[in-house]
Amino acid sequence: MKKFLAAVCFALTAHAASSLAAAQEYFYKGKALRIVVATSAGGGFDAYTRTIARHLGRHIPGNPNILVENMPGAGHRIGANHVYKIARPDGLTLGHFQGGLFLGQVLGEQGIQFDALKFEFIGAPVKDNRACALTKVSGITSMENGSPRRLR
Q1: pTM of the complete model
Q2: Number of structural domains, the chain?
Q3: Residue 152 resides in a domain
């Protein structure tokens, strides 16, 4: 979560020239930025998101209000699908959901209705180290021939 907040703050403020900052201030002033968290209230993802929301507005020119909306269900798919399919790509909606869903897309899991390559990434609250282990019985002998579907 700390890394996510730092990445968002860095991305939105550190590289902005004064004219760009003025444009951003004009864009965000008086608006609400919504963070869709793909879990119910009270868990770790929700706590991360609400902590970020409490401070994020101060680091964005125009000081927008930050709203948190919980969209739990289907192993984070409901929130992720909503951000991709329904939320307007207008710079006012962020998504906070499990990055492991992208592997699910590669593996062809049911219920994933997004294309991970079309998301714009700005950071992550924690660093995940994922691993995948298979036995010879699976018939998969390498990453090149093991994926039923590739992103690229």
Answers
A1: 0.70
A2: 1
A3: no
